[in-house]
Amino acid sequence: MRNPQRPVTLDHVDRRLLRALAGDAGVTNKALAGRLGLAESTCAYRIRALREAGVVTGARAQLDLALLGYPLQAMIKVRLGSHTMANVSQLYDALAATPGVLQAFHVAGADDFYLHVAVENAEALRDFVLRHVTSHRVVRQTETHLVFEVRPGAGVLGD
Amino acid sequence: MRNPQRPVTLDHVDRRLLRALAGDAGVTNKALAGRLGLAESTCAYRIRALREAGVVTGARAQLDLALLGYPLQAMIKVRLGSHTMANVSQLYDALAATPGVLQAFHVAGADDFYLHVAVENAEALRDFVLRHVTSHRVVRQTETHLVFEVRPGAGVLGD
DNA sequence: TGTGAAATATAACGCTA
DNA sequence: TAGCGTTATATTTCACA
């Protein structure tokens, strides 16, 4: 690991490696090396270096949420009535830890949090909001928007 | 692969496997089997079955965006002036493919898209909005909110 | 960059409950 | 049907030249 504040300098090969790994972390070193025209040993070395530098922080499996029985997604905007540090961070912890929450964004503006959630159906969504969001005293208002679709973006390195 | 519409039935072991893989896709089969108390052959078999069932769709490396030089994140709400199918899907394609976009949400409500983006600094954020969002004719209005922090949620399986 | 040894993954098999 | 243990083969990883 390195100083997490100072940006790392990457060359073109690093960028291509990161792009490839961001798209498919399961790719084998052999395949990657072949695709980029590197020796396998070199490719493995650079990937390890990127990991040790902290640029690659881990890998997560992507799940088909609909197949798992959670075909409905929503974005829930949460607005607080009180913004003491303790209130905000405690609620943030609680919301992020609630099953069904895919991501919790703490944002600036009129709303405080955006919760991206996946649920079984409309009824489960209503229950989620009532039981796990508005049930917190500090929550003053919520606004729930159905998510038609989520797409992975090009990312900071482009595609 | 299976019929992508019909939910799969998972037992408790499958759930634990998916939770583990969602948190760290890089874990070795040996370690996973040991942790869950399975034979390595059984563990490998079940993981492959989950993959073939389409439950696990892939794996993505997580990058430290600040270390890469993109320490600033924002959520940009995008509202269109015309909602023909062609307009919407074409803009969606263009926005998702724009470098800097981490995720693009197509949502119901007054706003049409939420763009989660990462940029170098405030100036880059302004340029992003002007050059890649409001430059599209069909975009009527945008609203940009700084993202203080993003947390991975517990996910549909809990943590 | 290349090499080689150790660790690991993969896939197939038969056996069992 | 699912789990287990065992094979053999392929692949990855890592230290070193």
UniProtKB/TrEMBL annotation, chains A, B:
Residues 10-71 form the HTH asnC-type domain. The keyword DNA-binding applies. Signal peptide: none annotated. SMART domains: HTH_ASNC. Pfam families: AsnC_trans_reg, HTH_24. One of its GO terms (biological process) is response to amino acid. The keyword Phosphoprotein does not apply. It comes from the Bacteria. GO terms for cellular component: cytosol. This is AsnC family transcriptional regulator. It comes from Actinoplanes xinjiangensis.
